[in-house]
Amino acid sequence: MLVAFRTDASFEMGSGHLMRCLTLADELVRRGHGCVFAVRCQPGDHSQIIEDSGHELLLLPRINEECESGSGPGHAHWLRGGTDRDVKDFIGALGKRRPQWLVVDHYGIDSSWEQKARQYCERVMVIDDLADREHVCDVLLDQNLGKSKADYAALVPKNSVVLCGPHFALLRLEFNRWRENSLRRKLSMRGNRLLINFGGVDQNNVTGSVLGALAQCPGAADLKITVVMGANAPRLDEVEAQLGQINLNVELLTGVSNMAEVMASADLAIGAAGATSWERCCLGLPTLLLVIAENQRIIAEALCHNGAALGIFDLKQVPTQLCESLSRLSTQRASLTRHSSRLCDGRGSVRVADQLNEDNCG
């Protein structure tokens, strides 16, 4: 079957939506299906990653203006040009193709967009995290901890299949392959390898803020620190310059293609409370979560409540809280590994692909 994806990446919204769609697409292609991605041309769109992954790219035209303030869902400004223009561009890019599935992962898209687009696709799947708008879909996925079907009961058609929780988290299968090795390391060692990663964009340079605070922590000079950033991260040059000015043992990696191995080799982590949270859970990596966007707050609160992570919920508190939080992270590492690893086994993409296959055959 043919599966079309409508998602975006940008310096503002980051790359997480696109990357989890790519994970599902890779699993579908592994099963012999075809995948095509429709993304809007804009700064930080990561379109080259789609082509490098071997999937077909439909690059929608660049639009500079945003839709009117107050119209559509809460993140409507993420959908450049508004619903009607975006649907028109999407349908035009499809041409004569009629996909068996349309997968939508975009906070700026709601039922009004989906109702128009589904006329050109047999079925619609929506990936969401917010439960803040209505959808017209056959399948909805919310991979976040603490979410349930009840959260979407009034937002999707009654016959929609709703998949909830990290059991369905869209992780590349390499994370499942590294899981046993990683858990064994983290439960049997007390190493000093610290991983710092705030996604592929990190527009506000949270990495730099963390490094600055970390340089003031007692014992930080004894850590072996790995910083991972996107190859095109807008603040990469600033971080590189900062590393020459602080007394820390830091390795800077960019454009990493073996993230599961990097995480499996780490003993502790500092990172954002986004989709990468489930990768760290799968590998049992004890993590200090920072809330770098408001839509990450619920994830961070749920992980901390379940004993699966520690958190700093206000970036302004990083300079004053980081040292003490990092010390607690090291002390509680075994408990954090056990609790986090129970939440996600890294086979969510297989389960979601199974659902699409099942519904298509049914």
Automatic annotation (TrEMBL):
Residue ranges annotated for the Glycosyl transferase family 28 C-terminal domain, each copy included: 213-342
| Gene3D superfamilies, per database record | 3.40.50.11190, Glycogen Phosphorylase B (3.40.50.2000)
Enzyme Commission code: 3.6.1.57
- The record's top EC class is hydrolase
Q: Which named protein is this?
A: UDP-2,4-diacetamido-2,4, 6-trideoxy-beta-L-altropyranose hydrolase
Organism, scientific name? Marinobacter iranensis
So which domain of life are we looking at? Bacteria
Q: Does the keyword Hydrolase apply?
A: yes
**Keyword vocabulary terms for this entry:** Hydrolase
Q: Which InterPro entries match?
A: Glyco_trans_28_C, PseG
Q: Which terms does the record give in the GO molecular function aspect?
A: hydrolase activity
